[in-house]
Specification:
Layout (H helix, E strand, L loop, with lengths): L7 H13 L11 H11 L3 H5 L6 H21 L2 H11 L22 E3 H15 L2 H4 L12 H16 L5 E3 L24 H4 L5 E6 L4 H10 L5 E7 L4 H8 L6 E4 L8 H10 L5 E5 L17 E6 L3 H8 L8 E8 L2 H9 L7 E8 L3 H15 L5 E5 L8 H7 L5 E5 L19 H17 L6 E3 L9 H11 L8 E3 L5 H12 L7 H11 L13
Parallel strand pairs: 1-2, 2-3, 3-4, 4-5, 5-6, 6-7, 7-8, 8-9, 9-10, 10-11, 11-12, 12-13
Helix pairs in contact: 1-2, 4-6, 6-8, 10-11, 11-12, 13-14, 14-15, 15-16, 16-17, 17-18, 18-19
InterPro entries: LRR_dom_sf
Protein name: 10054_t:CDS:1
Organism: Ambispora gerdemannii
């Protein structure tokens, strides 16, 4: 059987992998069947396809071009009567002449994701590129934004998408992506009152939003249209909104809740609504100093992923930690102040099923004792751990070899330390001005790590630690690794030097190491003649 004869279902599964590698476009011109399958993926979330990081001018140009091309396609789909009305209403707005060619695929019917903020900015870029300046200035300079061409054109595109779509599964009313021309916040648009909204939003599963008064009408509309939203992602919480709390209340089952925080000190409405839905949660992510009490999740026994970032009430966290979390697989605790006893209790209550663990903190009365207690707890309660990221005080690093010996399935280990910017503490030779005893201690620890690390380990990240490893220590470590590992090791270091670079390259040639970011950064600095700067490759 050739690939061309595969069923559409099989092709869809294969093409989803190609999407991640950005090579899906190569399938569009093979034949009609491949085009239909690829279009279903690309147009399912067209905003995700257009988005890309723009760290330099070339990427910025690509982002602008892809956004304008996408908007151009949307504009071309608009009915002639809509374009004529917009031209009359806005006076100066001009549309390209339509070729009256029916597209091979009804692309708008494939759209399952609507990002209003992003679309509004795309339309602004399209206007800047295709219209005269008086129109291209769009709504940003208008006193009445809802009368401006950017809003009116965006509104008509949204209406047409809602009418044509077979069902919107993801609605984004806020985005963290900043456009190349800055980020213009659009006026609120009454999506739920558009023709066809009752069908388009009936199967809505994922809502990304900010919570504030201006969106109350949309929350009320969604409460009537969408009762199967499985995932909520709140990027800002500006008001303890009654309508939003009711939207949570009417959902049949919420599986994922992500909360980034906001300016509201008290959140009684949303807290009470969540208390009723907490038992069905599978994923919980609360970031920021949240006023949502953690004890409302103490019956969330189905959790598979838990992430808490910020500062929380210890008593509330303690109640959550006492929950029977036997299904939990991923745990991330990033605290300002570590709650050692409660964190250990939480680890114990996972019944040894955790596969990914991250525990970091800023403050502790006794970092060494805290590290030692957590290392012992992870040894006891996390035997299935595959990935571990942990703050380890240098004085507590002696416990790492026995930890590695216990975690026989571990694939990735990241050590975080208290990095101090002290350029004078490190010389080009890789030696430091720390006492010889400390260097010898690190050498011994690295030697013991090599002796005890599991064969499955393929990532060892010390780039965010405060370990200054000299060339002889590294050479000794890698020599012991030669026959210990099943695959080449990805190794990151806090400090690089010419001697260490030579050792890296030697063991890359032996297929013991893979290419690392610290080596690439160091080589780049050499090319730029900036070899005096030996600061960590990674900065928060």
């Amino acid at each position: 059987m050739t690939v061309i004869q595969l069923s559409p279902e099989c092709l869809y599964t294969i093409f989803k992998f190609l999407e991640e590698e950005n090579s899906l476009y190569s399938t569009l011109f093979v034949n009609r069947e491949w085009l239909l399958v690829a279009a279903k993926i690309l147009w399912g979330d067209p905003f995700g396809v257009c988005l890309s990081p723009f760290d330099d001018e070339d990427q910025l140009d690509k982002f602008e071009k892809s956004s304008i091309d996408f908007t151009n396609s949307l504009v071309s789909f608009l009915p002639k009567i809509v374009k004529d009305t917009l031209t009359t209403t806005t006076k100066h707005l001009k549309f390209p002449e339509s070729k009256n060619e029916k597209p091979l695929v009804d692309y708008l019917s494939l759209i399952q994701s609507l990002d209003y903020y992003q679309l509004y900015n795309y339309v602004g870029m399209w206007l800047n590129k295709t219209q005269v300046k008086s129109v291209g200035a769009h709504d940003a300079a208008s006193k009445q934004k809802k009368q401006g061409p950017q809003f009116l054109l965006t509104q008509e595109i949204c209406k047409f998408i809602i009418v044509k779509s077979g069902g919107i599964k993801q609605l984004c009313l806020h985005t963290t992506i900043r456009g190349p021309f800055g980020f213009v916040l659009p006026p609120v648009m009454p999506f739920t009152k558009f023709p066809g909204a009752n069908i388009a939003f009936e199967k809505l599963e994922y809502l990304v939003c900010i919570v504030e008064k201006e969106f109350s009408e949309i929350y009320t509309g969604l409460s009537h249209l969408s009762q199967d939203i499985k995932s909520f992602e709140i990027l800002e919480y500006r008001q303890d909104n009654r309508e939003f709390a009711n939207l949570i209340n009417v959902q049949r089952e919420i599986q994922s809740f992500e909360y980034v925080g906001g300016d509201v000190e008290a959140t009684p409405r949303i807290a009470e609504a969540l208390r009723e839905k907490a038992q069905s949660l599978i994923n919980l992510n609360i970031t920021g100093s949240s006023s949502i009490p953690l004890d409302i999740f103490n019956k969330s026994g189905l959790l598979e992923s838990l992430e808490l970032v910020g500062d929380f009430q210890v008593t509330e966290f303690g109640k959550l930690a006492e929950t029977n979390l036997t299904k939990l697989r991923t745990l991330s605790l990033i605290f300002e102040n570590i709650y050692v006893k409660e964190s250990i209790t939480l680890l114990e209550n996972t019944n040894g099923n955790l596969t990914e663990v991250e525990i970091l903190w800023d403050n502790s009365p006794n970092n060494r004792e805290t590290c030692e207690r957590l290392i012992e707890a992870i040894k006891r309660f996390c035997p299935r751990c595959l990935s571990l990221e942990l703050f380890v005080e240098k004085d507590a690093s002696k416990g790492l070899p026995s930890l590695l010996e216990s975690l026989t399935l571990l694939e990735s280990l990241t050590i975080i330390g208290s990095i101090e910017d002290d350029d004078d503490a490190v010389h080009e030779t890789g030696e430091s001005e720390h006492e010889t005893e400390e260097l010898e201690a690190i050498n011994e620890i690295m030697s013991q790590i090599a002796n005890h690390m599991p064969r499955s380990l393929h990532v060892l990240d010390l780039g965010k630690s405060d370990w200054v490893i000299n060339a002889s220590t590294l050479a000794n470590f890698l020599q012991k690794c030669e026959h210990k590992l099943d695959a080449p090791l990805y190794l990151e270091l806090y400090h690089m030097s010419d001697e260490i670079r030579v050792i890296f390259e030697e063991y890359q040639d032996k297929n013991i190491l893979t290419e690392s970011e610290c080596l690439r950064s160091f080589s780049g600095n050499l090319l730029e003649e900036n070899d005096d700067d030996l600061s960590p490759y990674f900065e928060e």
